[in-house]
Amino acid sequence: MLAGLAVVVGCLSLGPVLRLVVEAVAPGGQPGLAVAARVLAAPATWVAAWHTIATSLAGTVISGLLGCALALALALTDIRAKGPIVFLFTMLLMVPSQVTAVAWIELTGPASPLLRPLGLAPAPGTSNPLYSPGGIALLLGIEHAPLVFLTLRAALRALPADLVEAARASGAGPGRVLRTVILPLTAPALGAGLMLAFVSSIGNFGTPALLAIPARYPMLTTAIYQRLAGFGPRVLAEVATLSMVLGALAIAGIAAQRALIGRRDRRLASTGAELPPAELGRWRVPVEALVWLGLAGLLLVPLGALFGTALVQAYGQPLGVDTVTLANFRYVLLDHAPTGRALVNSFGLAAAAGALLVGVAVLLAYFGAWRASRLARLLAHTAELPYALPGVVLAIACILLFIRPLPLIGIGLYDTVWIILLAYLARFLTLALRPVAAAFAQLDPALEEAAEMTGAGLGRRLATVILPLVAPAAAAGALLVFVTAFNELTVSALLWSSGHETLGVVVFSLEQAGDTVLAAALASATVIVTALLMLLASRLARGLPRGVLPWQA
Amino acid sequence: MASLTLEAVSKRFPGAAAPAVDGVDLAVRDGEFLAILGASGCGKTTLLRLAAGFERPTAGRILLDDRLVADAGRMVPAERRGIGIVFQSYALWPHMDVAGNVGYALAGRGVRGAEYDRQVEAALAAVGLTGFGARRPGDLSGGQRQRVALARCLAMAPGLVLLDEPLANLDVHLKASLQDEFAAFRVKTGATMVYITHDQAEAMALADRIAVMATGRIVQLAAPELLYREPATPLVAGFIGKGAVLPATVIGPVAAGRVRVEIAGLGVVARAQPDQRPGPALLCVRPEDLALVGADEAGIAAVCRRALYQGGGYLIELDVEAWPDLTLPLVVPPGIVLRMGESLRLTIRDGWVIPNG
Q1: Region A348-358: what's the mean pLDDT?
Q2: Non-local CB neighbours of A270 within 8 Å, separated by 6+ positions
């Protein structure tokens, strides 16, 4: 069983990446570095690379400031309603990029339903200020701030209280404790969170697609997309090289992140309790107000603009009693044929990916945790690769793998929905695996040994002991995969074909085609579905070990 | 040096059914070594955290010397109490070297340069870790880590030191050597010390007085010998030292602090409070209060249940028909060997009538 698992996971995780490497050194099957050399010599490549790095770095600074401030406020102080704050802040990450981008475009554009009534919107006819490097960096920063927040908060929670208490007993006030104890001890985690935000920014497609393309500001992901969309498979070798550049940047970031996490000194892992929150006293209400003001500005106001745009009869109308309508929602969800297909496709893809991956994840985590299989643990690490690599890179690799009919059976997957499913399976396995692995780590292997003692075989143990114990975590993992796949754009933007659109692709196409109101309506519906699925997952994950779902308080 | 006073201090955590600390009055004298002894969950750690300034009392007052540091309304934060604390987990900062840990409080007070180095080195020398300044805490053994924690405390020159089960994670030999270290610390600094422990031997060895805690209250506060000889409640009698608590009847006084007691048909003269009234009572009997007697002498019939070799003599656990739920401990001198199931007679030569029995 483990061997079968190894073949499946190994092929899914390593196959695409290896194929990509082969293409770079042997384009079209002919060994030679000419194509790679040409692409690497072209100034356009380095302009795009520089744009990607510059906006990602600026975005990472923004992520760092936002994520750091909130993590400190939440982990160290007694502000109230932490659950809702974490949930809303994590939504910045869970709402897909293309939807966030549409929301912000509506908020800051000349037709802004919120700013125009206040007289703050740009003059009609002028371009949206977000169509700029600054705008791209801002949105990348906001979307990935939860990554910094979650990493730093986890480290703050793992900080033993007695280290802080010892400093206070030595006469250190709050400022000195923060400077000399808390920040130095959590600095590696903060660095790792920043690297994570940077790598995610580099690989982000939705934001550059909607902001950088109209701004005529080439970036790596958009350059790959535009070239492939414009010239088709004959430029595959070329975009493969481009995506290798992107992949190399990402791998450098991941390596830095790993190194930082490894630097944490665990030898003194104290048994101390969790840090009790500091009482803010009369400062509590102002701090809470600041947090909620920030959440409103980062999430609620842009989403308000999105809904405001989606709820009027015609683009640019002010939202009022006589203009409000649900007609756009009805049209786009019920009558618009591509959306209808996309709903079916995205739902089917997400459900299939969730169901299949959770099965693989349970087996893999079981062998890794309870059977102490090194192979299973290695596979679990391997599974992180397709998720850590930018989606564009994975998509190009999948095209390379499946553009020709499969050997032996002669069936072609290119231009079908199956290539998207395979890419999703490769990309999201690690999402399903993490909660299940966390659940196994908390369970006593003796529970299974007791079942073995009674003579139960592996099948019976799986059905009667293992599955029931990890079922809530598995369900949470499946939902996590479902939400992410349902909202996915980056991979499907390169892999979709006519009739096989995904929801992300349709939102992107509608916005690009100028069907702003319809794009906003579909994006609004996506936001609602995402929030509902997140709530559902929280319900399922109640009583599970902390950290199974990122947005759990 | 400093004194610590708790007046009717209570602490109830939100959502808890019972208060963790329940109306505790405690006066720790200037320069005293006081141990707070209790089973886990008795509230002793909460009491220490209240004194340290990590928890706010729900009722009562805490004073450091004559300074009010906490009541239900006001609270001086821990960093302004100047209390030294030695943690069970050592709580050494892993990102600083040993010298950085030890000199942390000095740096906060603005001590710099040669004076800083001198004081850090002096503190390290005092715990026998001269030259360890550049090491990382992670490279040290458990005992060395606790010495560093002690040096950190020493460098602060605190008037009051709180020790939270500082030996709980160490093996027997290290315990003994660190106990010496604590005693030396006290002699050197004259600091008042409050020592939290669940280990009665540790408390007995170190403390001037011991406060026995149970369910958030102090049950008895007394010097170790008094606690052993005159436990105030059956709980203290059972917790401190070996022994048994036996049902008896007080007949009446025979001398100052002495009463005649009838126990299982045997007449015994036992120690008691001066105002001990006649009637049913509980008698605390220690192993040294029991003795074997011949078959024809007055005594209680007993059966040897178990013989535990203690080095030198045996500790015998005895079953007595009259008290089927109890076992009596008896220390027999070297040379006497009793077998399991062997019958014998014993007498009670002394005992303590538990006043709150």
Answers
A1: 93
A2: A160, A162, A163, B89, B90, B91
Contact B33, A144 (CB under 8 A): no
pTM: 0.82
Segment holding A134, helix H or strand E: helix A133-158
A433 and A459 share one domain: yes
Tell me the two tokens of residue A147.
């990554």
State the pairing for strand pair B84-86/B4-11.
unpaired
H-type helices in B56-141, by residue range?
Answer: 98-102, 104-108, 113-126
Does any CB of chain A come closer than 8 Å to the CB of residue B82?
yes
Range of the domain at A292: 42-266+284-312
Pick the closest to residue B219 from B53, B39, B2, B5 (CA basis): B39
- Asked if B85 lies within 8 A of A166 by C-beta distance, the reply is yes
DSSP letters, A87-109, are HHHHHHHHS-HHHHHHHHHHHHS
Q: Does A386 lie in the same domain as A529?
A: yes
What pLDDT score does A257 carry?
A: 80
pLDDT at A267: 47
| Number of Cα atoms under 13 Å in the Cβ half of residue A297 | 9
Sites in chain B below the pLDDT cut of 70: 1, 357
Instruction: Supply the ipTM of this predicted assembly.
Output: 0.78
A307 and A337 part of one domain: no
Instruction: Give B5's contacts (C-beta < 8 A, 6+ positions apart).
Output: B26, B27, B28, B61, B62, B63, B64
Residues A330 and A308 reside in one and the same domain = no
B98 to chain A, any CB pair closer than 8 A? The answer is no
Residue tagged 């059977």 (tokens): A371
- Predicted local confidence at residue A370, as pLDDT: 82
Which of B81, B88, B94 shows the shortest C-beta gap to A267? B94
Residues A55, A21 share a domain? no
Mean pLDDT along residues A501-520 = 88
Residue A265: band (very low, low, confident or very high) from pLDDT cuts 50, 70, 90: low
A112: left (phi over 0), alpha (psi -120 to 50) or beta: beta
Question: A145 with A237, same domain?
Answer: yes
Same domain, A302 and A342: no
User: If you count residue pairs, one on A and one on B, with CB atoms under 8 Å apart, how many are there?
Assistant: 82
Residue A268 pLDDT more than 60?
A: no
pLDDT digits 0-9 by tens, B12-27: 998 888 999 999 999 9
Q: Does B59 touch chain A (CB under 8 A)?
A: no
pLDDT of residue A65: 97
The domain tally of chain A equals 2
- Mutation to test the B interface, candidates A163, A170, A268, most B Cβ within 10 Å: A170
Task: Enumerate the β-bridge partners of residue B73.
Answer: none
Residue of B nearest to A171 (CA): B79
- Would the CB atoms of B85 and A169 count as touching at under 8 Å? yes
Angle A417-442/A337-369 helices, nearest 10 degrees?
A: 40
What token pair was written down for A515?
A: 């069907």
Cβ proximity of B327 and B319 under 8 Å? yes
Domain CATH number, residue A446? 1.10.3720.10
Residue A353 CA: distances (Å) to CA of A389, A426, A431: 19, 9, 11
Closest CA to A358 of A266, A474, A507: A474
What percentage of chain B has pLDDT greater than the value 90? 56
